[in-house]
Amino acid sequence: MTDETREQESQGSRYRQIAEQIKQAIHSGSLAPDSRLPSVRTLATQYNVSMTTALKTLRTLEDERYAVARPKSGFFVAPQPLEMKLPAAASEQPREVAPLDEQTELHLAMLGSDCRVRLDLANGDISLYPVKKIGLLMRQMGYSKPALLGNTVKGTGYGPLKAEIARRAVEYGCNISADDILITNGCIEAISLALRATTRPGDIVAVESPCYFVLLQMLHNLNLRVIEVEAGPEGYVNVPKLTGLFQRKAVQAYLTINNINNPLGKSIPNEQKAYIARQADENDVVIIEDDIFGDTAFGERRPFPMRAFSPNAILCSGFSKTVAPGIRIGWVHSANYMRKLASLKYTTSMGTSVLSQAAIAELLRSGGYDAHLRKLRRELKNQIHHMRQAVLRYFPPGTRVSEPEGGYVLWVEMPPQALNVRALFLKARNAGIGIAPGHIFATDHRYDHCFRLNAGFGWNAEVEEAIRQLAQWCQLSLTAG
């Protein structure tokens, strides 16, 4: 990389850092509505950046509706939107995740059970995964290394697998030691161990909203309270609101799916991750990140986790979304809590199947995993595209649908006055169509007009007809209203 390229990249991230500082000043009231912002020349001098970077900073604030440009006068702070006028306590009170009501408990129990059209999960058809290859590796290794089955399962995991995980982590900006990796029974166990190691009952955890329903129920079971931070217009967490919680010492931890968020499918940009990580470190907030979908990103380069920007972030991931849903091999990395994580793991589930670990280690070592990922990403991107276009084609005007950057799922927001998604869920189930209703992704009713669709089981005439049927029920409810 040339010095000129380094300088361009530095300037490219610098405008975002400056914009975030100005947004913080606006949120705190230091910059009042309609007050004049520094000129391009003043910003360039004040922050020692080029005029181009200074102008890009102000244009970014304008694009995000924090600033307005007035001809021949410069840039001014935009009038505050309603959400900024509300006192912080009105929208940021911690909530206890309530026990499931009877209806929600029923919906969760039904979610994932057999149905004719699988639009409800967040994984794919068996044809997407290298199950034959994994099965062959397990048979070969079970025969050549019987100790993998015969010995007691103990320790923090299979050494060669941990070494492969650490090796691959370098590719996405993380320099981690294999000694600080613990193999778990899926990513969910990794997250649970991380929460138990870093929080106490009654602590407050910030989460993105909508939030993956399993994480919400996990927080409830651990007697933790939550503050739900809704996504901004970009599709990822509202960064000023989130870091404002850090600065006010309002939360002890931040639990995030910052790469290919479930259910929105977006990744937080690197400069924003760096800012969040820095604010967390400065305010003693523990970051626990679920990076299970990171390897499914559609772009040419895998997105970096938070761990790439802070050695204190706890990184959780696994292979159930890429190798096979039934493999249930996950892992957690922490430079600060490894001893406690290992102790909790031993007294919770003791160990993790070594034969499965050995098979995945060999898949990673041989290069088979990378070849498989290229195919998986291509297939998922194609299936997501077809399903998204169908939703836009068949659902009534006013319906909004996410634009995922990876993963399996779409988030659908139905127009106002459409039928409550709880009713839609039951209608669909009775017709053999599975969807994930929006109300399970929050602690309240804010997503009763939304639902999640899974594109992982392929695109065919039956799936298209299911989308058409969902759209018809939505349209009929609007007509009846």
List the helices and strands and how they pair.
Layout: H1 3-28, H2 40-47, H3 51-63, E1 67-70, E2 74-77, H4 82-85, H5 88-91, E3 95-96, H6 102-110, E4 117-118, H7 131-144, H8 147-150, H9 159-169, E5 181-184, H10 186-198, E6 204-209, H11 213-221, E7 225-230, H12 239-247, E8 253-256, H13 270-282, E9 286-290, E10 314-318, E11 330-333, H14 338-348, H15 354-366, H16 368-394, E12 400-401, E13 409-413, H17 421-430, E14 433-434, E15 436-437, E16 450-454, H18 461-480
Parallel strand pairs: 4-14, 6-7, 6-8, 8-9, 9-10
Antiparallel strand pairs: 1-2, 3-7, 5-11, 10-11, 12-13, 13-16, 15-16
Q: Roughly how many Å is the radius of gyration?
A: 24 Å
- Please state the structural category: alpha/beta
Largest sheet: 8 strands, mixed
- The overall pLDDT average reads 90
SS element count, helices: 18
| CATH architecture heading of the largest domain | 3-Layer(aba) Sandwich
Distance between the termini: 61 Å
Shape: globular
* Fourth-tier CATH superfamily name of the largest domain: Type I PLP-dependent aspartate aminotransferase-like (Major domain)
| Proportion in helices | 40-55%
Percentage of residues in DSSP E strands? 5-15%
Oligomer state equals single chain
Number of domains: 3
Please give the number of β-strands: 16
CATH class descriptor of the largest domain: Alpha Beta
- Reported by name, the CATH topology of the largest domain is Aspartate Aminotransferase, domain 2
Strand order of the largest sheet: 3-7-6-8-9-10-11-5
Low-pLDDT ranges: 1-12, 81-90
